[in-house]
Queue: 3 jobs
Job 1
Amino acid sequence: MGGSLWISHGATEASFGGRSFIAVLRLALLLPTLRVSGQFMGKPLDCQKTCVCASNIVSCSRVNLTNVPTTLPQYTAVLDLSFNAITRLRAEWTPVSLDRLHSLHLSHNGLTFLSSEAFANVKKLRCLDLSSNYIRQLDEFIFEPLEHLEVLLLYSNRISQIDRTAFSGLVSLQRLYLSHNQISRFPLELVKERSRLDSLRLLDVSSNRIKTLPLNELQALPAWIKNGLYFHNNPLPCSCEVHEVVARWYIKELSSAVDFRGSHTCVLPGHQKEKIAILDLDKVYLNCSEVTAMDKKAFLEQFLVLDCDTRERNVTKSWALPGNIPVPPAHKIADDGSLRIGPLKAEDSGVYTCYATSESLNETVYVTVVVFNSTEIGGLENLKTAYTTLIGCLVSLVLVLFYLYLTPCHYTCCPGQRLEKGDPRDSLHSSTVSITHAHLQTGQERPEGGGFDNKHGAFLQPKDRLEQNGRLNPIGEEDEEWRGDSRGRRRSDAGSVSSVSSDTPMVV
């Protein structure tokens, strides 16, 4: 019996030891999960030791946080988490909706990851500061929930890829800072006519890696957009087109060109990659033409629309005609402030003045109009006449050349035709003017004036050449040839045929 008790006691001890081992193993496996969960969720907000809570402001700056504190008050309006070590902003960083939060500061955290749902519970944000982090790309629709956002700070990151839909939904965005990144493509869709953010008035892409700019599209933008479009300090290749854009913006006194005049540089071609000021290209290097203020040019009887292109968008605009004359009712001012004049007369030339006023701006825009003293139709007709005359001259020249060089020659005097020795067609009459056969038969006298009644200048046909062989014989053989002629023609007859009156035309 004692043996049985000993065995029972040993079995119980072994069973207890096995259960303890299993419990310890489970606890060991559970500890990393608790640590990870704690790392994801962070610690509860402590307004006494780590953070400063003042009314609706929560400031947890420079306290070495690795996660966003939990249990944030729902009345929080400003949350400052800058200068910490929060490297990933996950979707669950705030499990509750913070409807009153309008400013979120996450600069200098070493952020590398933004969840696609990171802003799902903070839809009322108006200012988001993500500057001075390690963000490399902006995925599609990343900021779409933030329809009330007005200011987005993304400068001093490592952004090299931006999806074209990354900023979709930001219908209230006014200022976007993307400077000091690694962007190589200018985000034209943000400012272009049909795809731009309607409220955007400042876009900073300076100090990036942009090598090409859509210059024509940028030049066509209204002045209130160009005034806040900053693209200085990019490795743009030097060209007169770049110089013209910057120079026109500078003449217009746009802030983006005036405030950073010395920072608008370009790279000269060559191995040294030397940088120079863009506005100096018209002096030494590329010898670009000087840019002056643009004028409006038109013809008589035309209508013209003058734009009051101001640096501010919402301003009140009024116009004055040359000589500071108030605008008469005949000239219509559109809703956008543009002035329509016409039909134009010569006296409509001059400087038109637009006065733009608002609470923060008083701007004067001058537009010079030059009216040519002719109609556009008349100018086109003169141009057509000149072209017609030129074409007629060219066609005439071609026909003359064709006649001289391409028309086949059927006469013995043509160059390149050789006659056999003793050919009776080798005669002086191949280039002689013949008198009509009627005069030879009737022997009619010449009328007064020394000419014939009917004068015909033509080459002799081959038959006539055989009958009228009138070769010159400078060595005295002429008498023998005339004596041996089968027709017995006299020298006086030959002389009368070969001699022509002075007013008979010669055809060669």
Job 2
Amino acid sequence: MGLSARDIAFIIALCGVTTLNVFLVGAVTVALPTIGRDLNFQEGNLYWPVNVNSLSFGGLLLFCGRLGDIFGGRFMFLVGSLWFAIWSLATAFVPSSDVFIVDMALLGIGSAANTPAAIGLCSSYFPPGENRNKAFSALGVGSPVGFILGIIASGLLTESRATWRSLFCIQAGLAVFFVCLALVVFPKDHSNRRYNKGLDWGGAVLSTTGLGLLTFSLSDSTSAQKGWLAPQVLSLFLVSIVLLVAFVFFEHWRESRNMSVLVPLSIWKQPRAKLGPLVGVVFFGWFSFDTLNYFFTLYFQQVQLLDPLQTSLRFIPMAIAGALPSIVAGYCVARVPAQILMLISLLVSLASSAIFALINPDLDYWYMAFFMMITIAGVVIVYPLGNQQIVVSLDEDSQSLAGGIFSVTTRLATALGLAVTSEIADSVSKTYNNEHPDLDAQSPEVLMVGFRAAGWTCFASTLLGIVIVIFGLKDLGIIGKKHTHTRGRGTIRQSRLGVGPE
């Protein structure tokens, strides 16, 4: 049975808001220098808006995911999206740098609330089968396309009469529209799907603090003068590790006593679920994807010396190409083993990092850069496939939490990817500059040496993802196949895990 008009409106509302969450990051990435000048940012504080947004979003994902299971995914989605709309509008009129930083942190809270809820709603609204496959594929498109559209819109509007403030007005208006659409098409939450053991406050504090500090320390390492050697970076990183280790032991203790938990650790032991390898593939895939997007922007602006508008136009092919893999996956996921789909997607993405590492800046855009921009989109297939598998691995009362787990994975992958590759690129460029003291440290020639090193780092990351797919997911099977439930407990369990009976 095909998608009804209500189904399509349901998907549009979900994808629209989750796309806006990532649109924000892409837009601010390009507009940040202009925002810094307009609001009189001190040079050392310029990256604080992005860092605090990552802090609030990454730290609260698991907590908000579990709240969605307790209070209902519909409630959390609407509250989070409305919160996002309100603070988007407020950000458009900020008078100073300090207020802008606070607003960016508050926007991260809204994103943390509606992102896990969207994935949980998608799994609860659509039964296993073709329509669910299409819905998850649409969600998969939202993240990369939202980021790229943010870059394009920022390039078009930042230097125009509309200024960067118009980006937040547009964001607020669209968020309100999607909230209104959701109010009309979202069904009421069913009480039998709620998590009724209560909230694990200890786990919430440990995970939120640990993930927040980890995300912040990784993000801050890219802008701190001493990098990883900066006292605040190293100390916060070590504290975050201690807190996250404590979180794991605390959750194990509570689950062994059948108490409420934020994350049931038993899900990692399900042999058919393959959650460990899936998280690894998503992590290394997004490590490469988001990092390359960042360096592509730097390459066009700092090596080819293009302005923001010219840079944004070069991302248009990526935005178009980003939609195609997920659309194809929506039809193939019920017919082709997930391992094959993931392997193809990562191999295509692997080409992008290789092209970037070998690119000749003197060549016309269409000879190398164009192919670099379209092949990077291959990895977007991995995210919806992983989400479909994880939602059937958790109980029906933990679907929003399921959405939070992969969202945390992608956010940490992005933060670590930027931290590691920025350090590598900076180190390689400095070494090259020391060998060629006649060149300026910010010259395109010096920067490009470091950018190539970053490209090879992303190549290695994608290659690790491919290795995990080959050896860790060989028994994953066909994820999106619709199954008939029978009375046998074993058959029901296999159907819920997304794999057919033997």
Job 3
Amino acid sequence: MANDKTAHWKDLLRRRLASAKKDDRTEDEKKAEETELFTKYYTEWKVGKNEDDSFKHIPRFYYRLPAEDEVLLQKLREESRAVFLQRKSRELLDNEELQNLWFLLDKHQVPPTNGDEAMISYESFLKVGEKAGAKCKLFFTARVYAKLLHNDPYGRISIMQFFNYVMRKVWLHQTRIGLSLYDVAGQGYLRESDLENYILELIPTLPQLDGLEKSFYSFYVCTAVRKFFFFLDPLHTGKIKIQDILACSFLDDLLELRDEELSKESQESNWFSAPSALRVYGQYLNLDKDHNGMLSKEELSRYGTGTLTSVFLDRVYQECLTYDGEMDYKTYLDFVLALENRKEPAALQYIFKLLDMENKGYLNVFALNYFFRAIQEQMKIHGQEPVSFQDVKDEIFDMVKPKDPYKITLQDLVNSSQGDTVTSILIDLNGFWTYENREVLVANDTDSNTADLDDT
């Protein structure tokens, strides 16, 4: 059997060799072809290997968002985000767990007290951490302890300060999750409509807003949202990072309205309170003499003390968004926020853009003179002797101390901490008069205070 197979293979090999074409190439030609083929296949193999390696080692960094017509993918993404946020919410301490934490801290306090405050040592701090549960683990670290350690001679920290720290962290995480639920795009920011929905649904949870008529809700929401966007979106992108909302104090001011016993003074100074919102909207209605829901330049000229210069108001209507030459409520809110917060960089940026007529990025002597001439004209109208521009110009440059002695940039104004005074001098007769008579006003205020003390 084996011999038959061997004979078969021999016969097959003989016929194959007989049918093969004779290779007439020289050894050098065969060697050249071999080298060429080797080079070709080796290069292809090497390039292919490098591509595969580089592709496999680059982590995925881009995930395409579903298109508008990909309804199923959008729904899947929304549901997955909702599940993720719910899971994150369950990881936070609830009221019962916070009460238990306070009980443990109080039980492990280490005498003596520091004034009225109960204290805890690092050893006891670690013991509480072991008993408090897994959710509290991230708070019981050496880093947190060191952060709260001040001047206690025994190296302890205040129980109340630590508990407030935990409460603040929990509140921040809860608020971040709450805001993220309104992040329709799922990209970590809120658009104007997203923030409007958040505040609208927040209104019923704020006792200080119980008296607001539902018909006023839309105006209240617009008033509240504008403050966030005016200060947190200086480039007018139409969206704000949730991280920036949490980092600023505006949300604290808004949620302060949960306090049923908030003082009248606190309400008046809080932009988000009902009295403040009604004040701003009431001013707008009072200025709107023709009751068309918009403000003309003439109507806006009566804003405040009615002493804003005509030149400045011209610039407002040239640069700000208007409709057939008239200003709507949203644009008016930006105007009010700028003039009521002139010390803030965002407000100075707003006013600086109006003063920078040629869009050069700085104010020179010509620009200062252009705006101050309107102040001088108003002084003549009121029977006052106009002040020399040269003197005012020198005072402005002395106050600001710009890097370039002939130009004042926005950054110069911000750095000087005199931006509110400088802008008031240039755009508002009342602001200029207050600056010019500052010494007299201070003296009168001092005399008034002395008289009050004498009376007592």
